[in-house]
């Protein structure tokens, strides 16, 4: 196997490109159904991209810690904690930047001096959303990595089983499958973080990346970790493919079968959501190993490789650019409009119509980030976060 797993880079790149695309439509009111998250119970293609990335993170965690022989040394623990903190703080910084721009524009009608308006916008920490995608990635990675260097990996399946079962029982007996303020997830997150620091979903303060639902997401990364161990311990590609297909079939079948009693739900990261998405990710990885590593069909994958070698950096870059495009205003026709509003509303929408224009905007935004990522890829620049 190559020093870098090309198949893994491609799968990682596909998920990052997918995350950027579904997060940046031209208009949220004009999004095709497959590019929307399920309203509550259920599964759409969009619901797959984030959990696929977490599964891949588990594999990457095994590969990165393997070179340290999983020894619990001060330097290894320091690196794990440092990376966890950096990713978490970057997630908070993105949330702060978005909140600051939003607050600045909301203060426009109050007639405040520019300095006071900026200060109030930048210091609106009382409404800063604490959970988020990067924050969940950070916590799930950090906990999994620390477990990996402090205990035997043969106990991981037991931790996963206990974690998912315990989480399910909490959901079952504490209204965890209800989209309401009484949901155990919402109750715990409100108590720990406060109501002003959470995302509002359908009028309910139930954050899809909240603290309590991080428990199954840690199990999610741990499943990826075990798959990474299997991949690295299996030298033959055909054996890798067979094992990944078997793992994928078992997890996917089990998840759908158990969904009759435990609905598949991304917003609460239900145990069946973990099983099904890990199973599908394992199956797709097996398919990519067969296509790329066995059959040698690699030319089509170059586009995604540019995303896959710098995944977190490009995701952060995309979030930053998205905030700027949606927040910086330019004069147009006697009014002020954002760059995004101009491109979508004044250029693409009149030409293509609502839904096609919204999709084309998302694809163009993916292309913009690819251009930057491709420059880094060609120069062999790998930015680790």
Q: What does this molecule look like?
A:
This protein is mainly α and 385 residues long. The chain has 14 helices and two strands; from the N terminus they run ααααααααααααββαα. The protein has a two-stranded antiparallel sheet. A hairpin with a 2-residue loop joins strand 1 and strand 2. Helix 1 runs parallel beside helix 12. The longest helix is centred in the N-terminal third of the chain and has 33 residues. The relative contact order is 0.16.
What's the layout of helices and strands?
Elements lengths: L5 H18 L22 H21 L7 H33 L7 H9 L10 H18 L5 H18 L10 H10 L20 H20 L3 H22 L12 H24 L7 H7 L2 H17 L1 E4 L2 E4 H14 L1 H25 L7
Antiparallel strand pairs: 1-2
Helix pairs in contact: 1-2, 1-10, 1-11, 1-12, 1-14, 2-5, 2-8, 2-10, 3-4, 3-5, 3-12, 5-8, 6-8, 8-10, 9-10, 11-14, 12-14, 13-14
Précis, in short:
40% of the residues are buried.
Q: Helix tally?
A: 14
Structural class call reads mainly alpha
Radius of gyration: 22 Å
What gross morphology would you assign? globular
Note the beta-strand portion: under 5%
Oligomer description: single chain
Give the N-terminus to C-terminus distance in angstroms: 24 Å
Number of strands: 2
Query: Main β-sheet, in a few words?
Result: 2 strands, antiparallel
Mean of all residue-level pLDDT scores: 94
